[in-house]
Design a protein that fits this description.
- The protein is mainly α and 254 residues long.
- The chain has one domain.
- It contains 12 helices and no strands.
């Protein structure tokens, strides 16, 4: 039986995670180890974490809604891909062993971070140049595929999902980073809602921790979302890369 103090610790961790997820991604680095340290098995900790952080993504989306202006059609086009990927990833998590789960995570996070750090060079390699001023912007067909792959990853674990989304969306979309960050927040919300829906039915959610963390993540998401609106794009990108490296290295040496 968990104590009120343990729930408080989990709630404070979720406050920090909600803020970090809204600004950069990687908030699971805070909450997942906290839940494991509080005695939850790794898969149960991951399932509980996914359910508990959903309010944080919602709060972050609300806080960044100005940067979503004009992206409603784009969200509709990629929502299905995000949901399908999340469903597949969450199913894979529920049938995976702890050993496979632990082995894959750091490499996925570090790969996403490298993709974001090399974003400008990748654009050059792909021959993508800034659009002519006033020209109509058309999303590339690869967008849906990349969102689906990110959804699979997010449904499976989720640590670094925001980093991965910022990386892939930034490569294929010609949008300022704050607008890409707001889109990332919506896709992360969709992925976590779908995964959480399946996890609720799995019977593996530690509900006391989840409830305490939901309150903290909602407040943190709004706080971090407001901060993300004010951070310069270059600073935001550097922050995301640093967070990604920390997340990846920590899980690599665990």
């Amino acid at each position: 039986m968990s104590s009120a103090l343990e729930w408080l610790v989990a709630g404070i961790a979720a406050l920090g995670a909600g803020s970090v997820n809204a600004v950069a991604g990687g908030g699971t680095l805070i909450t997942f180890p906290t839940l494991v340290a509080l005695g939850l098995p790794s898969v149960t900790a991951n399932v509980t974490n996914a359910v508990a952080l959903c309010p944080g993504y919602f709060g972050g989306t609300l806080a960044q809604r100005r940067s979503l202006a004009g992206q409603r059609a784009r969200v509709r086009r990629i929502a299905g891909a995000a949901a399908a990927g999340a469903l597949l990833g969450s199913i894979l998590l529920l049938v995976s062993s702890d050993e496979l789960f632990s082995a894959l995570v750091p490499f996925l996070i570090l790969g996403a971070t490298a993709l974001l750090a090399l974003q400008d060079r990748i654009r050059t390699w792909l021959g993508r140049v800034p659009p002519t001023p006033g020209a109509a912007l058309v999303d590339p067909p690869a967008l849906g595929v990349l969102v689906f792959v990110a959804g699979v990853y997010g449904g499976y674990f989720g640590a670094g999902l925001g980093i991965m989304l910022l990386a892939v969306l930034g490569v294929v979309l010609h949008e300022p980073l704050p607008r890409v960050n707001a889109l990332k927040q919506v896709v992360s919300l969709i992925v976590n809602l779908v995964a959480a829906g399946l996890f609720v039915l799995s019977g593996k959610v530690a509900w006391g921790f989840a409830a305490a963390m939901a309150v903290g993540s909602l407040a943190g998401g709004q706080l971090g979302g407001a901060l993300a609106e004010r951070v310069r794009p270059a600073v935001l990108k550097a922050l995301v890369v640093v967070v990604g490296l920390v997340v990846g290295v920590v899980y690599l040496v665990r």
